[in-house]
Design a protein that fits this description.
The chain is of the alpha/beta class. It contains 14 helices and 30 strands. The chain has 2 domains: about 280 residues, Metallo-dependent phosphatases (Purple Acid Phosphatase, chain A, domain 2); about 240 residues, 5'-Nucleotidase, C-terminal domain (5'-nucleotidase,  domain 2, Alpha-Beta Complex), CATH 3.90.780. The strands form 8 sheets. A 7-stranded mixed β-sheet has the order 2-17-16-3-4-5-8. A 5-stranded mixed β-sheet has the order 1-15-14-12-11, covered by helices on one side.
Length: about 550
């Protein structure tokens, strides 16, 4: 088939659309398949057209894929050349993606007939392949994102992610699909640069997110021989790119399906509509595959939770101040000590010595967790034990230690010595103390008074003055009182800055047999009824850094 020249192609689009405009999830008029344009004089309703079906933000919801396959079947039956694409964010979100880090989603999208997908922010939620810490033993391993995508028949594209000093494309920047009628449609992907603020830093190690507009302009040149060029974007800031149609569905738009009907002769966009998914039937073969995948995932995780919010998990945030993840984690530890049956995890020697539970009143029970042991995000959607293991890849156990108020204050003084957080203090701020039951202030204008070294990055506190404990569980702080600190066996044994842990009351302090991730899971399922809700939408104001 004769191709349009670039000038004619642009002109055709301009005549049909008045100007080259980006297509967003909000620009489409909703319609059901029965209302699509019919072209008089053709033997089939849509013969002579190319239909681009696009989805965005599938987010692991594999139950939608049989409908996407059916939608493709519908338009093919109408005589159209059909291309099925996705603008990104198809992985993390449900147990069906979590249980095998997205492999099932990719396999089912392949089976549904996707041709091209852009790479979105949530494609990086599962890391670069290995989840765990070699020093402490790997929890599990999965293939890298690139390996998973390479196994699919569809093309996965991103034109603005580069790797290495030479800034080479980290993924395929573009792909060309040749339709049944011989038209070549070029696609390129644009990935949201704010991914760097939504995903664990190590998951993006070595990757750089380039300017999307520049990348798009370059791809128009690279795909100049195509009959039509389409950019698949999840950026959320629609771009006007001469010579290309940009389909932009940001992650904030939620699940979105749209249809473009393009005239093959002129290149004009004849129709752009959103889809009522309630009007779409289900492809039987894809549904059968989805049913099998759902059964496998439910066998792996018969119980799972849901998060309505994103819990911050970046290294920088976890080490520089209070986070909603730190709130959840320490709330879980304090709850476990008071209401979760911690005494069931005391060993025989403890019980024989009369140590059968928490030995101070509830108002004197607090929890502390170091920021260096919060290793990933918990994103909105389904949450499984495997997700908690991403946050804490170490096999830490719950510990209880008893300190005086004066010792607790010194513990916080030493743990905040690396503040304010900078690249230079990255290691020392691993000790940053997230807390439950404590409200405290750190005055970083006062230098930390460093004494003798403790470990590789920390020092004992010669004097106190940076930290003020404002209250303990709403009560006045008492330096002479005894407090129970619920924490990890690592902090119990003096890890990071916590030399004061080694000066604890020995009589009742103990390391239990309960694993921390199990305690956090119990809190989510039992205390929160399986829903991490909007009380954890943001940090709760427990720690003030000035």
């Amino acid at each position: 088939m004769k191709k349009f020249t670039r000038l004619c192609f642009v002109l055709a689009l301009c005549l049909c659309m008045a100007a080259l405009q980006p297509i967003t999830a909000f620009a489409a008029q909703e319609a059901s398949p029965s209302t699509w344009l019919q072209r008089p004089g053709t033997t089939s309703e849509l013969a002579g057209t190319t239909v681009i079906i696009y989805s965005g933000n599938v987010r692991g919801n594999i139950g939608l894929l049989p409908q996407m396959a059916a939608l493709r079947n519908y338009y093919e039956a109408q005589g159209a050349d059909v291309i099925l694409v996705d603008t990104g964010n198809y992985l993390q979100g449900t147990i069906y993606s979590a249980y095998d880090s997205g492999r099932t989603v990719i396999e089912l999208m392949d089976k549904a007939g996707y041709d091209v997908v852009a790479i979105g922010s949530h494609e990086f939620d599962f890391g670069t392949g290995t989840v765990g810490v070699e020093l402490h033993g790997i929890i599990y391993e999965d293939d890298s994102l690139g390996q998973l995508l390479a196994e699919a028949s569809f093309h996965a594209v991103s034109a603005n992610i580069t790797a290495g000093e030479e800034a080479l494309h980290a993924f395929m920047p573009n792909a060309t699909v040749t339709t049944a009628s011989g038209r070549e449609v070029g696609f390129f992907g644009l990935t949201d640069p704010s991914t760097v603020n939504q995903v664990l830093e190590s998951n993006l190690d070595g990757l750089t997110f380039q300017n999307a507009a520049n990348a798009a302009a370059y791809q128009v040149t690279a795909l100049a021989e195509s009959d039509m060029i389409i950019g698949l974007s999840n950026i959320g800031t629609p771009l006007i790119v001469r010579g290309a149609i940009i389909i932009d569905v940001p992650s904030s738009a939620g699940f979105t399906v749209g249809v473009l009907i393009i005239d093959n002769m002129t290149g004009c966009v004849l129709s752009h509509s959103a889809v009522h998914m309630a009007d779409i039937t289900y492809d039987a073969q894809v549904q059968q595959a989805v049913n099998a995948a759902q059964q496998a995932a439910r066998a792996e995780f018969p119980v799972w939770a849901t998060s309505k919010v994103t819990l911050e998990g970046s290294f920088a945030a976890s080490r520089s101040g209070e986070t909603n993840m730190g709130n959840l984690w320490t709330d879980a530890l304090r709850w476990f000590a008071l209401y979760g049956g911690i005494s069931n995890f005391y060993d025989e020697d403890d019980i024989a010595n009369g140590n059968t539970g928490i030995m101070v009143p509830a108002e004197n029970v607090v929890a502390i967790w170091n920021g260096g042991n919060l290793r990933d995000f918990l994103n909105t959607g389904d949450v499984t034990m495997k997700d908690l293991q991403r946050v804490l890849p170490f096999p830490n156990r719950v510990a209880v230690m008893y300190l005086t108020g004066a010792q607790l204050l010194e513990m916080l003084e030493a743990a905040t010595q690396g503040l304010p957080f900078t690249n230079a203090t990255f290691a020392s701020t691993a000790a940053f103390p997230h807390a439950a039951g404590i409200e405290f202030t750190v005055n970083t204008s006062i230098p930390f008074d460093a004494g003798e070294p403790h470990g590789n990055h920390w020092f004992r506190a010669n004097s106190l003055g940076r930290v003020t404990i404002n209250s303990i569980n709403g009560n006045a702080f008492d330096p002479d009182a005894t407090y129970a600190i619920i924490t990890s066996n690592a902090i119990f044994n003096g890890m990071d800055s916590n030399y004061i842990s080694l000066e604890r009351c020995q009589e009742f302090s103990t390391i239990t047999s309960a694993f921390v991730v199990d305690a956090v899971w119990m809190y989510i399922i039992q205390a929160l009824d399986g829903v991490i809700d909007y009380r954890y939408a943001s940090p709760q104001g427990r720690i003030t850094i000035g």
